[in-house]
Amino acid sequence: MIRAERDPALRARIRSIQPLPGVRAGSALLFTGGRLLVVQDDALAVAWVDPHTGAIEHVTLEGHGGALAKATKPDFESAFLGKDGAITLLGSGSTPARYRAARLESARGGGARFLDCTPLFEALAARLGTAPNLEGAVLLGETLHLFHRGAGGAPSAIAVVAAAAIGARAVELLAFTLCNLGTAAGVPLTFTDATGCGEALVYLAVAEDTPNAVDDGPIAGASVGILAHGRARFALLEDPDGAPTTRKVEGIAVDPATRTTFLVTDPDDPERPAELCQVELEGFPL
Fold first, then answer.
1. Which of 113, 166, 215, 251 could form an SS bridge with 29, CB 3.0 to 4.6 Å?
2. Parent domain of 83
3. What are phi and psi of 274, to 5 degrees?
């Protein structure tokens, strides 16, 4: 098991916050082609955001693109860019209704091709001994690193599968590691997203006081951490005033040209828009 350590040499502080009108339940973030793809976990729709102008383009993947009930929502919580330039969104797998992936062949076009990922989630469930709750996916070479979010005191975990596992008829786990990510205000921190950074992984974690992977709960804090060479270090995420944040940050992405780091929030309230945050990181390998 990896046990994360709070590192005083690291600091993560939100420096700006931009509400995203018409975007709810931000659950994953991806930077590509000079824009940010914001994934919403409660709809078959995504939003493209220009980080310079704030312009938002809404794209429907299937149906009407509006909010869906919790029992039927796709719960897309991860997004990654393939070597072929296609974008894959991956469901959390916390219920069988959330076993799908969506493949976006073009950043400009609407619609998506949906893939059944039942073998992947069944392999994860067998190893975890419980329903998976995937919150992040990072493609590194020919392998895909999947970030399971623990709940109710159970640890988070990282599973490694072949890049071709999405939509495959049979899936084998290549590696599996349990992760204790520390606490915020006494509540366990658990994965909400991750991104690659050279040989390291930069991850997000949130301390949500909930007994399971489906029900929402109060947020006690959040962190940004580094995973490298079997070691994890983290800093608690601060609001612009320096106080520990209680925002539910669920997506992280980096502009490779400027090294600007972005986060997106899920306010767990359909009446409130998601927020795009720029965050200042100190001591991180970005």
1. 251
2. 2-282
3. -65, 160
Integer CA distances (angstroms), 37 to 160, 162, 248, 263, in order = 24, 24, 18, 11
Number of structural domains the chain divides into:
1
Amino acid occupying residue 168: A
Q: Please, which residues bridge with residue 162 across strands?
A: 143
Handedness of CA 141, 171, 168, 70 (dihedral sign): negative
Digit-coded pLDDT (tens) for 117-128: 999 999 999 999
* pTM of the predicted protein model: 0.95
Comparing C-alpha atoms, which of 239, 232, 183 is closest to residue 209?
183
Task: Kindly give the residue spans of alpha helices, DSSP state H, lying in the chain.
Answer: 118-128
- The enclosing domain of 211 has a CATH number of 2.120.10
Longest dimension (CA), the chain: 50
Q: Minimal CA–CA distance to 76: which of 122, 109, 27, 147?
A: 27
